[in-house]
Amino acid sequence: MSWMAWTWPTAAFFCSIFAALITMTLVELRWPTVPRKGWLPLVTTRGDRFFISLLGSAFIHILWLAVTDVHVLVASVLSLVYALLVMSRG
Q1: How far is Cα of residue 11 from the mean position of the Cα atoms in its chain?
Q2: What is the pLDDT of residues 28-55, one digit of tens each?
Q3: Distance of alpha carbon 4 from the chain centroid
Q4: For the chain, domain boundaries
Q5: Contacts 24+ apart (CB under 8 A), 59-64
Q6: What is the DSSP letter of 42?
């Protein structure tokens, strides 16, 4: 793995995504998802909402880095709030 300059934040990010996917799989096996329509303009499953929240979080971070010089941790908190909102109400 010497071809990539791994840092602790990068490793933590990928480990957290991997842990979230494992958790989502176990939750799906225990409680199968029921497609529903929330405030998103389409019928979604739990996995769909998780994917939408990951995409939205990526866009929040990209826009944050492009627009402001404030610490990126603020964007991470905003992304977490966004993901919780999409997962619960989307």
Answers
A1: 16
A2: 999 999 899 999 899 999 999 999 999 9
A3: 23
A4: 1-32, 36-90
A5: none
A6: S
